[in-house]
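Take a look at the protein record below and tell me what you see:
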Amino acid sequence: MDDLLPYPFLALVGQAEMKTALILSLVNPQIGGVLLIGPYGVGKTTAVRALTDVMPTIEREERDESGQVVLRRDPMRIIELPLNARLEDVVGGINERVALEQQRILLEEGVLAKAHRNLLYIDEINMLDARIVDAILDAAAQGRTFVRRGPMTRLYPSQFALVGSMNPEEGTLRPQILDRFGLRVWVAPLGEQQQRLEIYRRAHAFRSDPAAFRARYADELARLRDDVANAREILPQVGLAPAAEEFALGCIQALKIPSHRAEIALLEAARARAAADNRREATIADVVTIAPLALRQRRSATLEQYAAQIAAEDAAIAQALQQLGAPSKPSPKPRRT
């Protein structure tokens, strides 16, 4: 069983951004997920699987034998999606065994429903079928999965923390998919010789005796797990300082980022960081720390050029109308909402 034990999260050497992003995704799934980008062998998958030790305990609804809804508490789980998954495996579909053996149709849940209130991990997400990626990201945005097979329909809750990883050498993600991830981490190989040597030493110690190696970090991991649980509990009470909001939006506008998901990811992650520090208000310092993670890869030279072209055309149209003596356009009256 030792080979099934995860590597301790706190034993990872360096990679502060990756650790921060993953912990914040557990604290606040509203951030919109985390995308880890880097070459092979830098610890992306190891880091995600290591979250098992620090995942909080959550409430789940289940039905007992009498059909009554009961609540039980157990830890979050990591649900991994294999590359060979079919669309039916992901969103749900007909139970083929029941259909063949009992000659009846039974709709069953897919990976997205099983990921409800858990962490959904997709390794090599850039290699996944585009339809499957779209289904996953739609579920992440809507918090539910709708399954229809002929006249039969089922609606499953699908609220989860989403983590994807990829090697850019094997291709990129479509812009609309990339935009859905709240935080993006470049997981670069560590450059210092001593750090790389320490990675080897810890990996060797873990392979030699996983249980003993994990025991070294048990107390620290337990404290981190408690911190994550506490942060999740106080998150609803965490607000944003007005100065932090203004600073965040000013940064986004200065970078000319088109997607409004940028401010959602940035401000939700800032709230999560404050909660992780047991504070009830996110500040400019939180925004500054999170900004590279939330705003990386969000600018678009193509859209900037297109917007400039539209502005030039609008100016030419306005000038032509003015030369022809068109009356001034009245200012729109504000509508009540």
Observations:
- The chain has two domains: 2-233, 238-295.
- The longest strand covers residues 57-63.
- The longest helix spans residues 301-323.
- The mean pLDDT is 84.
